[in-house]
Design brief:
homodimer, about 150 residues, mainly alpha, Arc Repressor Mutant, subunit A, 8 helices, about 55% helix, DNA-binding
Chain lengths: ~150, ~150
DNA sequence: CTTAATCCTACCGAAGTGGTAGGATTTGTC
DNA sequence: GACAAATCCTACCACTTCGGTAGGATTAAG
């Protein structure tokens, strides 16, 4: 059930771009240095974001990347889907009834469908802007109180 | 973000045991045949459930397995944790602050914590009994209507 | 003592993860 | 036009996990 580094780094890249864009294009080398990540590996990840239409790029000197939209117009679900492939916890969810002929009688399918829905609902409700502004109440829900105290523990 | 076959088969085994127990112990061979799964592979999975205290087993002839508790006293979260290891979508959630020294300033951590919470809340709210009885309203929430029609599509 | 069952350890091919390497291409600047 | 700095593209690779298989030791009922 882990989100791979592809998805996590993709999000990191977008957050970095949102914070450090402003004027022109931001180079991959700058992002990699700021985030302490391998530039070569980030290259393959940012390529997915670019092909998915989430970025605008400029080649050549002074080139780089920038966000194609405003931070509030990216939701986390689409970012992770682009890099992870799918967020469905089991294959049979992706297109129900197609892959598994036992779908009609499968007693566990509603559970996986419900889990998928819960994950999708949550991730599509959070935007890149929520992350930038640290909207803990939205991300952590009613449990925000216990999370505020966490910072003091260490 | 996929649940592996370990977790899925574990759930299948528990559902099968709940449905086909009644009197004594149920042999692994019977479960494997009913569920059309490899007995040898199921062996390693059921071993985890057994060591985790979810089953009672009897060796020797007429031996097998049976549930250690009532179906309503198993929640799906604990079943998956036992077989999958953890349900956390990223490592830094498992024991916050310990693994990643950047936790205090990590802007994406609240997102992963929120996702973890949403998954955990959902899966721990569903019991084995809900699956047995096909409690679609609980598993699928308010979307149950659209899911009822799904059966007619194919 | 045979048979049917769990238990235990080891192995194994295939796929996915997390990168690295090297070069081709494009673009701004001198 | 040359050079430098950047994206783009393809291939490779070590490691781990996934999804099993194989073979035998142990236990218990008849």
């Amino acid at each position: 059930m882990m989100v791979s580094t592809k998805g996590r780094y993709a999000l990191t890249v977008l957050v970095d771009l949102a914070r450090n864009s402003g004027e022109g294009y931001v180079s991959l080398a700058d992002i990699a240095e700021r985030e302490h990540l391998s530039m070569k590996y980030l290259e393959s990840i940012i390529s997915m974001l670019n092909k998915g239409g989430m970025l605008e790029s400029l080649r050549g000197k002074n080139g780089g990347y920038r966000l194609a939209r405003e931070p509030k117009d990216y939701n986390i679900s689409e970012i992770l889907v682009l890099t992870e492939g799918t967020l469905a916890p089991v294959n049979c969810i992706i297109s129900p009834g197609v892959q598994c002929e036992k779908a009609a009688t499968c007693s566990t399918l509603p559970l996986w469908a419900g889990l998928d829905k819960v994950i999708e609902n949550y991730l599509s409700s959070i935007t890149l802007e929520d992350i930038l502004t640290g909207n803990r109440r939205k991300m952590l829900g009613d449990y925000c109180d216990s999370c505020d105290t966490q910072q003091e523990e260490n």
